[in-house]
Design a protein that fits this description.
alpha+beta; two-stranded antiparallel ribbon; Sulfatase; Alkaline_phosphatase_core_sf; Sulfatase N-terminal domain-containing protein
Length: about 180
């Protein structure tokens, strides 16, 4: 890593890699919370879509006929890889160098590229980060909050006895 940094420095581009006063590489949790409005929490609270309920833009002019349309099917980042494999026509590998690979858990999003009204195929998705848990199923999200991001070490908790909240995210996407 040091050689890479040294090479960038020798090129005179080191200052171009570290951001500037216009970049917010680190900021207090309160600002992170405010910038994630209208959601309840920040990115460390996956149970309440923290940092996970984000829009995604896809451009493939030669493969997607639709232009400027919005899709609202529920997908997860694990669905990107199967979509790429499908559109390039490559089968999911089952082994690499003779070693069996875990099955891909994602669901290709390609079915929605030219059909905005296509019924979503991801019906269930589990989320967990730092003990904050959530599960999405058919337009509903059940969420359990273990701790908050500004406390570096939340008190121990029995993850099986946390209180759960239920939201119909098809009606209220922000879990308000």
């Amino acid at each position: 890593m040091g050689r890479v940094v040294d090479a960038i420095d020798e090129m005179g581009e080191l200052d171009n890699t570290l951001g500037s006063a216009k970049h917010y590489n680190h900021f207090p949790a309160g600002w992170a919370w405010a910038m994630y409005t209208p959601f309840q929490w920040t990115k460390q609270i996956a149970s309440h879509f923290g940092g996970t309920r984000n829009g995604m833009a896809i451009s493939w002019p030669k493969g997607i006929q639709a232009r400027g349309e919005v899709r609202d099917q529920f997908h997860h980042v694990i669905d990107v890889y199967p979509a790429i494999l499908e559109i390039v026509g490559v089968e999911t590998p089952v082994q690499l160098n003779g070693i069996a690979l875990k099955p891909v858990e994602g669901i290709s999003m390609a079915y929605s590229f030219d059909d905005a009204k296509a019924e979503g195929r991801r019906t269930t998705q589990y989320f967990e980060m730092l003990g904050n848990q959530g599960i999405y199923h058919d337009g509903w999200m059940a969420s359990a909050l273990r701790g908050v991001p500004w406390v570096s070490e939340n008190p121990p908790a029995n993850l099986l006895e946390m209180p759960w909240e239920l939201y119909h995210v098809e009606e209220g996407f922000s879990q308000a």
